[in-house]
Amino acid sequence: MSAITRDEVAHLARLSRLALADEELDHFAAQLDVIIGAVARVAEVAADDIPPSSHALPLTNVYRPDEVRPGLTPEQALSGAPAVEDDRFRVPRILGEEA
Amino acid sequence: MPYDEALERFEPVLGLETHVELGTASKMFCGCPTTFGAPPNTHVCPVCLALPGSLPTTNAAAIESTIRIGLALNCSIAEWCRFARKNYFYPDMPKNYQISQYDEPLCFDGYLDVEVDGKTVRIEIERVHLEEDTGKSTHVGGATGRIHGADYSIVDYNRAGIPLVEIVTKPIPGTDRLAPEVARAYGTELRELVRGLGVSDVRMEEGSMRFDVNVSLMPRGSSEWGTRTETKNVNSLRSVERSVRGEIERQAAILADGGRIIQETRHFHENTGTTTSGRSKEEAQDYRYFPEPDLVPIAPDPAWVAELKAALPELPGVRRKRLQQEWGVSDLDMTSMYNADAIVLVEATVAAGAPPADARKWWMGELARRANEAGLPLSALRITPDQIARVCAMVAGGALNDKLARQVLEGVLNGEGSPDEVVAARGLQIVNDEGELMEIIDQVLAGNADAADKVRSGKVAAVGALVGGVMKASRGKADAGRARELILERLGVSE
């Protein structure tokens, strides 16, 4: 029984804005299944007394003071943008016509 | 369907989500400034633009402000919680995710009491969490400037990363036909509370406070809640009220027709008071939240939280009760001041030395009238509490009467300067020089011989016409009381 289904991979691809062909879905589903299986093995060695962790460092409350620091000029900020208009990042159409 | 008919057949259930931009100097996770109205993309850096290799660091002041809001809303404060990534593809966040909180909000399980129609309604608070605001998109092309049908969009990231607190109520049943008023009262009270804490300027017209309004209906007698809709980004208290009303009417018409409500986001339109469909929520709201790996957990020291709690300022409801007692005004007067957003202004005017009754009289009378004419909130009038207090002092000192005071207020509102400058420029002092006043009185008596005779013959009531004549001849600058005394004296009549 595989850990991830082909439908789930198709769903993730859609959420990630990836256009995958049918044969690619099959291909990646098999690969992802192996990865999930490998990660699952970690759970097998974790004993009951080991709490789940989300961070590598045992730290809490790392803050900076509320102070303004210099950032980028608009020219610098926009220098890597594929398209610029009125000092703003220009992006392609977000949604199509209303259905 | 008309509102009354809708309420005969259905009961509404409300829910409100409020976004408040915090008034910190710098952004949530970087040192960019947060001031409103800067030229596009001037408040940006590698962190809030999500350039490769940049890492966020949490703003300590934002954590403190959020906890203070939570405490003021009677919430429990998490002993340990994390930020979470909310993943979505939309160009208002350059990271393709927003740093937010998911199942571990910083504050939870609180309440806020609001007063509607003389009754206290307790609004339960589900959670208060911290996230970052998004950039501002402008949609170009297409017929309406809206996102649908636009040719492309342009994005300014100045706002992206400003700390944003989200305050979420539990579902609010039982408001019945007062649902629109309850929604508005909650918004008003929450704004007062946040403003009182000094953590945000809560300027709704600049978007620093905005509401998402959830409404569902259930048939009378049913206990099963209906499908809700969420009207997004409602940005005035009046619109909160109107959007609830409009959505109740719309949903009732659909349900009465045997239709079903689609769970979706909707947009409110100021001009019509109605909502239209936005993105459909049925299509997989799959944000794939997971703990933010770039930020370590938040674990507020309980002793520090207790200190913050002890240092909270007087909350608005308590403050109103105290002021009402100090000012000696009725419930009704207090409510009308509250509804007119005049309490802060009256309080500041009293603090500047005016008697409470006078402060209230001007703000709720002449100034309310002028604000109403101009379609502005009282606070937007170009006159300060100090200036009102100065006018009150001049009236009390006998330099002005009420009629002249109104002219002084008009001058200040017109930008003619301070009250003293307006008095000097317009020549509005009361005529205190008795010689000058007597001259006017003699003129008026000469021109109104009939009335003068009546008074002489004992009909003292006729003196009113003569006083009126003096006031008119002096263009309102005479002291009416003194003029009356002098006229009677001149005519040899004693009362």
TrEMBL record, chain A:
Enzyme class label: ligase
Stored Pfam families: GatC
UniProt keyword Flavoprotein present: no
HAMAP family assigned: GatC
Entry similarity comment: Belongs to the GatC family.
Subunit description: Heterotrimer of A, B and C subunits.
Family annotation (PANTHER family): GLUTAMYL-TRNA(GLN) AMIDOTRANSFERASE SUBUNIT C, MITOCHONDRIAL (PTHR15004:SF0)
Protein name: Aspartyl/glutamyl-tRNA(Asn/Gln) amidotransferase subunit C
Lineage of the species this protein comes from: Bacteria, Bacillati, Actinomycetota, Actinomycetes, Streptosporangiales
Name of the gene: gatC
